[in-house]
């Protein structure tokens, strides 16, 4: 309905920002429905609207474009609007429950170290040829993504690495993008507050691999059984990495220390500064992706040996007295278990493990008791505290976690609701041989309480109460 040749000033999906001359996309979301704002925006003078349901407006008031899926239409239009930037560089997406940030970030550093201009879109930040900006979402909206990719191409970037969340795939945020490759890390319990079932979560990830073009690669973790489901109907060239099964990039941990792993890869020793089994998988994915992007084998190995931990991912801090503290973003049962198992494998018999952990509010409640049970089982002492309580009461979240503790495990645990007080108390009684795991927030520098983000940095707290005490 309306004039198909009407001029467009900007693309917009936020009703609060839409104005005269804009093309507004009415999106159906979990919190609101953009269709409800169409009559108001027509009065404000938007040139056209893209919608799934026909709006309640008079004929001739506005150009209306009806589509099956407004999210997909926005993604496709965003790509066109910015000149299809994803087709002008080698774009690699990383998806899975754990490891996305580490793999995407370290690929960025690896290829930058190899002399290429690169871009990065991650949970922590975006990078455009060395220019950084903080990130607000794991995967931004289509307008932000394509704007960033265009900025990368204009800066001369040849490669771009981005995290692809299950939310982004399900909401079609990556529609219209052309990927040179996709990497699958693993799939475990997470985001069931959004996806409702594990199968729905799996299928959201599958959408990413289903959309890869035939000349792209799909690099899969062969040790995760879900990889076989994800590659059904995948048109891309399928490759694999593994520590256990036969694969294209097979590795083995020869030695493991708190300072890193010695990995045997393609019959050669490769030293990495990232410890633990979970990081060994990350390194295999990074190595495999680099080789599939035709980087030189020896240069890749040399570059990987220089890579250091990503912010908030197994970051090690030590006090003068010898107490070790590890800050990690682990906020899922599997991630927490991986980190704690790594610490247990590396420690000597004298090291107690003290874990400080909470769980986020307004998120999947079913993982709370699992996280407490895992933390108590693999630690010598457990302090349950606040993470980002958001709109929930911190005590309610902690009580949900405690339901996962049997009487034996409960004797290991204490509850300190205030996160700073939990860190201060732990640092005060920790002995020189102890290892403190501060889990859940990692790189975050805030705590979200009742809709307000307050400054809070786990590493600052450790410097205040442990390193500089």
- What's the number of extended β-strand segments? 23
Level-2 CATH architecture of the largest domain: 3-Layer(aba) Sandwich
Residue share in helix: 25-40%
User: What is the CATH C level class of the largest domain, in words?
Assistant: Alpha Beta
Spatial ordering of strands, largest sheet? 8-7-6-9-5-10-11-12-13-14-15
- Per CATH, what is the topology of the largest domain? UDP-N-acetylmuramoyl-L-alanine:D-glutamate ligase
Major sheet characteristics: 11 strands, mixed
Span of the ends, CA to CA: 69 Å
Which quaternary structure do these chains form?
single chain
Low-pLDDT residue intervals, each spanning 5 or more residues = none
| Radius of gyration using CA atoms only | 24 Å
In short:
The chain is of the alpha/beta class and 469 residues long. It has 16 helices and 23 strands.
Description:
- The protein has 469 residues and is α/β, with parallel strands linked by helices.
- The chain folds into 3 domains: 11-68, Udp-n-acetylmuramoylalanyl-d-glutamate--2,6- Diaminopimelate Ligase, Chain: A, domain 1; 79-304, Mur-like, catalytic domain (UDP-N-acetylmuramoyl-L-alanine:D-glutamate ligase, 3-Layer(aba) Sandwich), CATH 3.40.1190.10; 315-467, Protein-Tyrosine Phosphatase, Chain A.
- The chain has 16 helices and 23 strands.
- It is globular and about 75 Å long.
- It starts with 10 loop residues before the first strand and ends with a helix.
- The mean pLDDT is 93.
């Amino acid at each position: 309905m309306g004039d198909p040749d009407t001029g467009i000033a900007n693309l917009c999906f936020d009703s609060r920002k839409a104005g005269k001359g804009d093309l507004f996309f009415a999106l159906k979301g979990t919190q609101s429905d953009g269709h409800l704002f169409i009559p108001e925006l027509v009065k404000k003078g938007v040139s056209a609207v893209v919608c799934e349901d026909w709006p309640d407006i008079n004929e001739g008031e506005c150009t209306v474009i009806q589509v099956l899926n407004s999210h997909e239409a926005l993604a496709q239009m965003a790509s066109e609007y910015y000149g299809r930037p994803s087709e002008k560089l080698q774009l690699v997406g990383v998806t899975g429950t754990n490891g996305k940030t580490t793999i995407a970030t370290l690929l960025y550093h690896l290829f930058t170290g190899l002399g290429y201009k690169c871009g990065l879109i991650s949970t922590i930040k975006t990078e455009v040829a060395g220019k950084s900006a903080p990130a607000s979402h794991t995967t931004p909206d289509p307008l932000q993504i394509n704007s960033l990719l265009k900025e990368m191409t204009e800066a001369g970037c040849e490669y771009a690495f981005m995290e692809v969340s299950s939310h982004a795939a399900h909401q079609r945020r990556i529609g219209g993008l052309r990927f040179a490759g996709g990497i699958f890390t693993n799939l475990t319990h997470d985001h069931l507050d959004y996806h409702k079932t594990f199968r729905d979560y799996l299928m959201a990830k599958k959408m990413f691999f289903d959309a890869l073009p035939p000349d792209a690669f799909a690099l899969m973790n062969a040790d995760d059984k879900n990889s076989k489901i994800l590659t059904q109907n995948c048109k891309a060239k399928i490759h694999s990495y593994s520590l256990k099964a036969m694969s294209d990039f097979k590795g083995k941990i020869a030695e493991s220390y708190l300072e890193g792993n010695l990995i045997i890869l393609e019959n050669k020793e490769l030293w990495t500064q990232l410890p633990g089994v979970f990081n060994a998988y990350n390194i295999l994915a990074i190595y495999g992706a680099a080789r599939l992007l035709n980087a030189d084998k020896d240069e890749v190995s040399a570059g990987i040996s220089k890579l250091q931990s990503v912010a908030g991912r197994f970051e090690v801090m030590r006090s003068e007295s010898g107490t070790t503290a590890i800050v990690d973003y682990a906020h899922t049962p599997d991630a927490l278990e991986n980190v704690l198992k790594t610490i247990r494998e590396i420690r000597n018999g004298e090291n107690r493990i003290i874990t400080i952990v909470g769980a986020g509010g307004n998120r999947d409640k079913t993982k709370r008791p699992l996280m407490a049970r895992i933390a108590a089982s693999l630690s010598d002492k457990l302090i349950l505290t606040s993470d980002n309580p958001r709109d929930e009461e911190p005590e309610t979240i902690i009580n949900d976690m405690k339901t996962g503790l049997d009487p034996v495990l409960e004797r290991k645990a204490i509850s300190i609701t205030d996160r700073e007080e939990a860190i201060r108390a732990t640092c005060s009684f920790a002995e020189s041989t102890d290892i403190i795991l501060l889990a859940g927030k990692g790189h975050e520098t805030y705590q979200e309480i009742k809709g307000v983000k307050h400054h809070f940095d786990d590493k600052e707290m450790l410097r205040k109460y442990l390193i500089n005490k």
